Amino acid sequence: MQPSPPLSDPLGRIDYAEFLVQLGIFAATFAVTYGIGRLVAVPLADRVLRSRRITPTVRRPTMKTVRVAVVVVAFFAGLFFARLETLLSVTGGLAAALTLAVGFASRNIIGNLVGGVFIITDPMFNLGDWIEWEDNEGIIEDISFRATRVRTFRNELITVPNSVLANTVVTNHAIKDTLRIDYAFSVEYGGDIDAMRRVLVEEAERNPRILTDPQPEVTVDDVTAAGIGLTSRFWIENPTRRKYLSVRSAYFQAVKERFEREGFEMSPEYLELTGELDVAEPVRTGEPVDRDEPLDADETADVDE
Fold this sequence. Notes:
Layout (H helix, E strand, L loop, with lengths): L15 H36 L4 H26 L4 H5 L1 H14 L1 H15 L8 E4 L2 E8 L3 E6 L4 E5 H5 L3 E3 L5 E10 L5 H14 L10 E7 L4 E10 L3 H22 L34 H8 L1
Antiparallel strand pairs: 1-2, 1-5, 2-3, 3-4, 6-8, 7-8
Helix pairs in contact: 1-2, 7-8
């Protein structure tokens, strides 16, 4: 079948019957090629990625790229078998204009794509990780080339542009098998510091979910007008947000109950000043003038001057 002349005919004479046949061939070729791609190419690519133990962080965007590639290949295959290649030359000018316009408007999109490539290829950044950035934190649910979706601990799903994460300090709490928890206690000056440190360590050792290696430790980190600052440090394994909150809550409750039994008291966060404040009377250098009394002649002269 010869290429359709009407598309390049300046007089606009179109053989509609032949053009409809070409469209039918295009649709059939597109459908067949797309079907083969979805039934063969996509499962094959997924099997290859899984056999090589590619992480889900890389596998998901790669599979999205494969699916887009199947659509593109099916489109060009339809054009080739239907002999509609001339459509590319007809729409070439329009495509160039659209590309130029999109290029000016897509600087942020390009930044997100570049950031997405760095995030996806970063082995320390994976689905299911517990991350924290700026004033936000949550669990990574999906990473694409444009944005990363994070499930917050209030069960909100937020979409973060990849350029934000790529240019922001991100803390990954789940990248290691263990996580250290630090908490500061402020105790009164009159308390037994050594006994308090012993209690804090013992309560950490009694919690079965707190590791004994590294051992829990308590240090004196601060001395202020309100009291003495003690910092308790202990480790948990396989950290998750739920486990982090649960272990810390159980430890705090155990410490509170033990302090009450031992008679230890925490210092207040601020000092309350009590007592009386005496203000001295100002020293006067002269007698006050009673303006209700009439002025004498000398005072009247001074005022006139």
